[in-house]
Amino acid sequence: MAETNWYVAHTYSGYENKVKANIEKTIENRHLEDQILEVRVPMQDVVEVKNGTQKQVSKKLFPGYVLINMVMNDDTWYVVRNTRGVTGFVGPGSKPVPLTEEEMGPLGIQEAAFEIDYAEGDSVVVTGGAWKDTTGVIQSINKQKQVVTINVELFGRETPVEISFAEVKKM
Predict the structure, then answer these.
(1) Residues 31 and 81 in one domain
(2) Does 94 lie in the same domain as 36?
(3) Which residues are CB-contacts of 161 (< 8 A; sequence separation ≥ 6)?
(4) What pLDDT is attached to residue 153?
(5) Is there a contact between 66 and 8 (Cβ–Cβ < 8 Å)?
(6) Residues 35 and 72 both lie in one domain
(7) Which of 2, 38, 106, 117 sits in a 20 to 30 Å window from 62, CA-based?
């Protein structure tokens, strides 16, 4: 798999969550889950005082911007660039520039280091979620998304299902 990096897309101010939803829908429709891994609108919790009362609210850290973890190629560039509400990528001209490790540090985005004790072909039992107590065989492991794909029996046929690392246990 090609290298993934975090890129910044510029959006119309106030449309960040709509752009995030639209990109995620396009990822699902075009089956780009292995190329565009994550879309984020960075938020921060702040305390507002209005009429003498304090209230904790979430505000956008960077209004007008969306962070995208993806493999940069013609398809992914086209999908993001042509999403309604996106005005372009951050970078010179039409060439997106990935964020560096130093730039990502203050954003709280770190690559999670997961140690897993199972491999493809192992039998596992699901310990939480909608598929709790279901058993299956691991078909694939995606460490970046922190999920395993297992086959479960649904309506008499094998169906692949993505389950979080935290919700599976080796049998």
Answers:
(1) yes
(2) yes
(3) 131, 136, 149, 150, 151, 152
(4) 80
(5) yes
(6) yes
(7) 2
Residue environment code for 9-47, b if the CB has 16+ CB neighbours within 10 A, otherwise e:
bbbeeebbebbbebbeeebeeeebeebbbbbbbeeeeee
Residue 138: give the domain boundaries. 123-170
Give a yes or no: residue 116 inside a domain.
no
Per-residue pLDDT of the chain (171 residues; tens, 9 = 90+): 568 889 999 999 899 999 999 999 999 999 888 888 889 988 888 887 777 788 888 888 888 999 999 999 988 899 999 999 999 898 887 788 888 877 777 776 655 555 677 778 888 888 877 788 888 888 888 776 778 888 888 788 888 888 877 777 777
Total domain count for the chain?
2
91 shares a domain with 16: yes
Q: Is residue 153 part of a domain?
A: yes
Can you list the positions of beta strands (E) in the chain? Answer: 5-11, 36-40, 43-50, 53-60, 65-70, 86-89, 123-126, 135-142, 147-154, 157-164, 168-170
